Amino acid sequence: MAEPPLLTLAGVHTHIGRYHILHGVDLAVAAGEVSVLLGRNGAGKTTTLRSIMGLWRVSRGAIDFAGQPIAARATPDIARLGIAYVPENMGVFSGLTVAENFRLATPSGRFEPQRLAQVMRAFPVLEQKWQVRAGTLSGGQKQMLAIGRAIIAERRLLIIDEPSKGLAPVMVGQLLDALLALKRARTTILLVEQNFFLARALGDRVAVMDDGRIVHTGTMAALAEDVALQSRLLGLSLESHQ
Amino acid sequence: MMRLLSNDRPGHWLLALLLVGLLLGLLAAPFLFPGTKALAVAARIAIFIVLAASYDILLGYTGIVSFAQTTFFGLGAYGVAIPLALGASGWAVVAGGAAAGIGASLVLALVMALLSLRVRAIFFSMITLAIARFAQVLAAEWRGLTGGEDGLTFTVPRLISPAFRLFPAPLLGLPISGPVIAYYLILAVSLAAFLLMLRMVNSPFGRVLQAIRENPFRAEALGYRTILHRALASVLAAGFAALAGAMMALQLRYTNPDTTLSFSLMIDILLMVVIGGMGTLYGAALGAALLVLAQYYLEPLLAALARLSGGVPVLPALFDPGRWLLWLGVIFVLVVYFFPAGIAGTLRARGRAA
Fold it and tell me: Which chain B residues are closer than 8 Å to A55 by Cβ?
């Protein structure tokens, strides 16, 4: 019997003010896999992630994490269940040092040495910048800090929103290496990514959103091979991103 | 030494020099500047360092704009003043009164925080403004308890009363009188309170406060309950403000709404924190010293300048002591122009850039 998904969204509707953004999102994220959420700008990807985290209140529908309903819970309670959220635009605290940013994400303020070493191996530049204020880091370094902070303590699910946005190509390469290392370690990730090259390299499964709904789900391999499907769903061809 | 400062380095040599100068100046003030006015000014600086630092925890570290810090200051002052004015005496009464004032402040701050920190920042500020005004009116109108606008005058314990002498002969030329002892007690408590606040803002709790100030949603997504942290910061800040109020009552030997609850006092505290540099605590200390010194010595300084420039046209009119508030304004504009992040904030930023 197949293992139930770690995270499921069933018929999720979200309103922001008077705007109806999500129109019944159905999504399942399997444990140990990288699920990628694709879609054009304004399709509702970030709203979906923020709804999962309780940052936007769900108006209808259900969100279950590890068998528990979380749609009505407060954001800190959802985070404490073991979900790390890396928002777009580098969610770091600029006024604090790299070390302080990391420390905030540990439950007791203390690092588990093995885990810290693993993060430093993935992002060696952060070790050199340990006592530097996060606000002075480059865009790529901030993104590494945001992702590193998400994995500095044990988490069951990583939600990452557009990690490559605004990064120089060389930085995207480094970021991909780090995310691939997480994938190899069978970390469960829900990733929103506009860069199809990155999404294809990381994703096991894919869901495509349009106008606040999921319009396609399947394996990333199938989507990567089907140029016509890409063109229909995303208005792009894989070749143009290589 | 750095452990005492919770490893919070000043970060710039000039800031370190200013802070050492302030500490040494306060320690030696009664010997260097004899006289009751100098002693009163030095004591006021020590007390306002605690009050301004407590406000910096709210404004600078947590991003909460409250106008009720004087309410807690007043509660501490009246907590000590009321039992002493009713005729009770002794250190137990002082301690009990201070504890009651601090306790009442903690409870009021907790209720205010839990009821109103959920609303938008501007509404919270308005609520604190209303509470501060209410406390001021209450103190002015409840004559039976607070003495109304006239306030309460009372006798302090003998050890700190003006007639008391610790030694029969002066020490280094200074008679060690009750007010001198009161000053050193106030200085010791202020220093301990300041170091405690420094420890607090440099603790993991302080870092969470800074994270919340920067982006409350990100802090919540890391699992921190922002309301609880903000409420705790408000409660602690209120407790330190009430402690400062209790010291103020002992130092002045009277309490009235103007000295503890007035809106102009709240503006002073705000200026101290902003001019000194928000979110540094050291800035609050420097701001408190600068503003109190300006309030007490700018007028006589202008009078001296007017006398010195007697023969020169225009200058005596410019330095007329009556224009001291204008000069205070000019000084503030200059400080804000040259130190946009406050004195401590700007010096620290320069230290980091160097």
Answer: 217, 220-221
